[in-house]
C-alpha cells in the first residue's frame, strides 16, 4: 500500500524562518513514514493581496492557481505556521482566501496537520487554533493533535533534527498518526454538493 | 462490512428541545446508513457541577462514569447542541470537563459530527465552533462539515423528518459522509502517549 | 471621586484553588487602588445545571438570582478562571447561561477584567479567550489586557502576594488601568434596547 | 466637550464593496454624533505581504507607516470588514501584522467598533469574532456590540442610508453608544510598559 501524497509548506517568507526548519524536518519524517511529500516554498505561492475586482479581471493570480493545483494533487496538507498577534499570519489567510475562489475549490475533502514553531514559550499554538477555522470551514479534516515547538532558536541541531530526543519522538509519532489518518481518508469525506454522494 | 458504532445525544435537558428532535432524526438516518447507534438522553448523564474536591473525594460522579463508558464503547460521537450566549451550553462543557478526568480518557481517538438546531435564523452554528475546541483538544477528529437547522419550530413534520426535502437530503448526505469517515477511522488515530505508536 | 464598585470571584469550587488565591490578591490590589470590592465565593452562586424546563417552572434558581443581584449592583466584574480543556470551565459558562436569563439581564453595560492562574507554563490564557465570547456577546466591555499566572504553586508568598516583584507590579499596573476604565465607563455604554439611547 | 477623533475604513479593496457603503454611512452617523472622522480608503494602506526579511531591510512599507500614523492620531478605530472563509480577510490581518511592528505600536490604548456587511443572511458576524482577537491582543478596547448588515444588496437607498428605518436607528444608537465610550476612554487605558502607570 502506497503512502499518502502530501503538500507541505511553512507559512513564512523569511529565509531563516523557524517554521521553515520545522516543516523540512516534518517532511523528512513523513517521507520516512512512507508519504510522498511535495515540500513547497511559500514564495512559490506569492500572490497579491486579495481584491474582488482583480479576481473579476484579470482573474485568479498565478501564485494562487499554482497553490490550488498543488493542493488538488494531494491527499493532505501539512502547514507549519508562525503566530502573528494571537492569530494566523495575514499572508497565510490571504493565500487561503484566493485559493478558496478557485473552481473546483481544492481544499474540500483533504486532510491536514498543523505545526507551529516560535522562539517563545507558548510555541504558536494559539495561532493554529484560529487557522483551524477557515480550513475546517472549507472542508479540510484536520488531525486533532497539533505540534508546537517552543524556544525554536535552541531546538534544532546541525542536522536539522531536534536536539531533545523526546521532542523528536513526539513529532515522529504525531506524524505517523497523521499519515495513518491521511491514508485512510484519501479520496475525501467532506460534502461535495456537485456529486451529492 | 459492519457500520460504525456511534453514541448520539442532544445537549439539552428540555423535554421539547429542538436538538432532541434533530438528534433523533440524525440517529435514524445514521441507522439507515448502516451505523449501530446508541441514542442517549442527556439526562442519563446528569452530574453535578465540576468540583476538584469532589473529584478527589468521593470521586467521579456516576453520570460522568456512565457517559465515559458509553463514549469508550463507540467509534464516534454525534452531538446536537443548542447555542447559549454565542458559545456551547455550560451543561455540555461541564460533562466534557468531568469525562475528561476519567482514566483512560475516552474521547481520544474518536471521531465526531456536530449539529445544532435553533429557532432563529443563524441555527446555532456559532456555538458549535466553540464546542470544537475542547473536543479537538481532547483528541476527537471532528468532521469538518456541521449541520445547522434554523427556524426549528417549523422544520419538523409529524413523522419527525424535515418538511423541506432539500434540507433532509443535505442532512442525509452529510451523515453518509460522516459514517464513511467514522468507518475508516474506527480504531483511532490521535496520539496516545501510553502506547506511543 | 469614589472608586468603581466591583464584583470579584474565582470560577472554582475547589478550596485550595490557585484562582481563589489570585482573585483574593486582585481584590486587595483593587481596594488599594480605591475600588469598592464585593469579593464573592463561587459557592455562593451554586446552582443546578441549566434546564429550560426548570427555568419555566419553578424558575431561576436562587444561586443565579443571587449572582444576578450582585452583578447588577456593581460597575464591573473581575473573574479569575481556570482553563479546562482549552476553554472556560463548564461551571462558569453554566452560571453565565442562568444569569443571562434574568430580567433585566445584568451583564449588559458592565466592564470586566479577566485573570487566570494555572500550575503549568501557559497560565490558562487560552481559556480566557473563549470566556470573552459569551461575556462580550452579553454586552460586557472587557479590558483588552488579561493577566495569566503560570506555575501558580510556586508563585504566592505566605502573605498571599506574588513572590516575584515584577509579576506583582505588572498585576498592580493592570488593575490600576482597569480601575481607570471601570471608573470612566461606570453607568454603561452597551446598547440597551429598552432605553434606546 | 469635543467629540472623539476616529479613523474609519472598510477592509476591502473592491470598488463596489458593501462594507465601503456601510463605513461611509457609519462615518456620517458618527459625524452627526459629534465625532471628528478620518474616513480612509483601504487602498491608501496598500502594502506588500508581510515578510520579516523585508521588515529588516528596507523596513516597514509606506502603506503600513501611513496606517500607523493615522491610527496613532485618533482615539478610536471603526472597521467595516467582510467575512472571508469564516474569519477576517487575510488583507486586513496582513495590515494589522505590519502595523503591529511599528514603534511605538499605535493600536495600544485605542478603542474600536466593528461592523460587517454581507449579501447573505448571517451578515459577516463570524468574521468579526475572529477579528476581535488580534485587535484585543494588541490592546484595543473593543465595544462589545457589533453591527452586522445582512442582505446588503437590498439594504441601501440611493442616499446611502439604510432603507429599513429600524436597522438605521439601531446603527445610529450603537454608534452613539460607541462615541460615548470612545470619548470617555480617549487617552487610553491599556497597559503601556514604557510609562508603567
Topology:
The structure is a homotetramer of 197-residue chains.
Chain A: E1 5-10, H1 18-32, E2 36-39, H2 52-56, H3 62-72, E3 76-80, H4 90-99, E4 111-117, H5 125-137, E5 141-142, E6 147-149, H6 165-185
Number of domains of chain A: 1
**For the record, what CATH class of chain A applies?**
Alpha Beta
State the CATH superfamily name of chain A.
Flavodoxin domain
Please give the largest β-sheet of chain A. Answer: 6 strands, parallel
Biggest chain pair interface: A-D, 32 and 32 residues
Stated plainly, the CATH topology of chain A is called: Rossmann fold
Percentage of residues assigned to helices of chain A: 25-40%
**Structural class by sheet pairing and helices of chain A:** alpha/beta
DSSP E strands of chain A, number:
6
First and last CA, distance of chain A: 26 Å
What is the count of DSSP helices of chain A, taking H or I runs of 4+ residues? 6
Low-confidence stretches of chain A: 193-197
Index terms:
homotetramer; 197 residues; alpha/beta; Rossmann fold; six-stranded parallel sheet; 38% helix; globular; disordered C terminus
3D structure, described in words:
- The structure is a homotetramer of 197-residue chains.
- Chain A has a single domain (5-185), classed as Rossmann fold (3-Layer(aba) Sandwich).
- Chain A has helices at residues 18-32, 52-56, 62-72, 90-99, 125-137, 165-185; strands at 5-10, 36-39, 76-80, 111-117, 141-142, 147-149.
- In chain A, helix 1 links the parallel strand 1 (5-10) and strand 2 (36-39).
- By secondary structure, chain A is α/β, with parallel strands linked by helices.
- Mean pLDDT of chain A is 94; it is low at 193-197.
- The two termini of chain A are 26 Å apart.
- Chains in contact: A-B, A-C, A-D, B-C, B-D, C-D.
Amino acid at each position: 500500500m502506497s503512502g499518502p501524497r502530501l503538500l507541505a509548506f511553512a507559512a513564512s517568507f523569511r529565509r531563516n524562518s523557524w517554521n521553515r526548519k520545522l516543516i523540512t524536518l516534518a517532511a523528512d519524517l513523513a517521507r520516512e513514514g512512507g508519504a510522498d511529500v511535495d515540500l513547497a516554498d511559500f514564495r512559490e505561492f506569492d500572490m497579491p493581496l486579495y481584491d474582488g475586482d482583480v479576481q473579476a479581471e484579470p482573474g485568479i493570480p498565478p501564485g494562487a492557481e499554482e497553490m490550488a493545483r498543488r493542493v488538488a494533487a494531494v491527499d493532505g496538507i501539512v502547514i507549519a505556521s508562525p503566530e502573528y498577534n494571537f492569530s494566523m499570519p495575514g499572508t497565510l489567510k490571504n493565500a487561503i482566501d484566493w485559493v478558496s475562489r478557485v473552481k473546483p475549490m481544492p481544499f474540500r475533502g483533504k486532510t491536514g496537520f498543523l505545526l507551529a514553531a516560535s522562539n517563545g514559550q507558548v510555541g504558536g499554538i494559539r495561532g493554529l487554533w484560529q487557522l483551524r477555522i477557515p480550513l475546517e470551514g472549507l472542508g479540510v479534516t484536520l488531525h486533532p493533535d497539533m505540534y508546537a515547538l517552543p524556544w525554536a532558536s535552541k531546538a534544532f541541531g546541525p542536522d536539522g533534527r531536534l536536539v531533545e530526543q523526546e521532542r523528536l519522538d513526539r513529532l515522529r509519532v504525531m506524524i505517523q498518526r497523521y499519515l495513518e489518518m491521511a491514508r485512510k481518508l484519501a479520496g475525501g469525506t467532506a460534502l461535495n454538493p456537485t456529486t451529492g454522494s
